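Narrative of activities, Objective 1.

The group set out to show that a structural description can be obtained from nothing but a protein's sequence at a throughput compatible with the screening campaign. Below is one input-output pair from the validation batch, recorded exactly as produced.
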Amino acid sequence: MQLAINLLTLVLVVLAMFLGLLILLQLPKKEAGITAAFGAESTAAIFGAGSGTALTHLTRWVATAFLSLCLVIAVMTSRHTTARSTKIREAVATPAAATTTVNANPAAAPALVPTNAARPTAPAPIAPAPSAPSAPKP
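Output recorded for this entry:
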């Protein structure tokens, strides 16, 4: 699953670069005035009679493929992450005693020796602070 996600991500990066190149290659409209800035010409551009060059059609198809691939990768990544976190939860939920092996011969088992942390220790002695001279000597 991770290999497919990585390959699709590589394809997505190539599509992003190609889409950027397509956008940079297109020429701006000749009538880019104040009316086009505020949307007066947008209805003619959207509902026109299929006007556009092959470059604009290719840009639309590449942009659609780019957005679709983004959605597919997002869904695949979320499913992969959910499956991985479920496995981790199951591994944590199993008790530690079930995963360890039990020695069949208790006489051969080593005796439990307390560690240094279990032994009581005496507190370290506190050294007296050096006294500072009260007046400097002349």
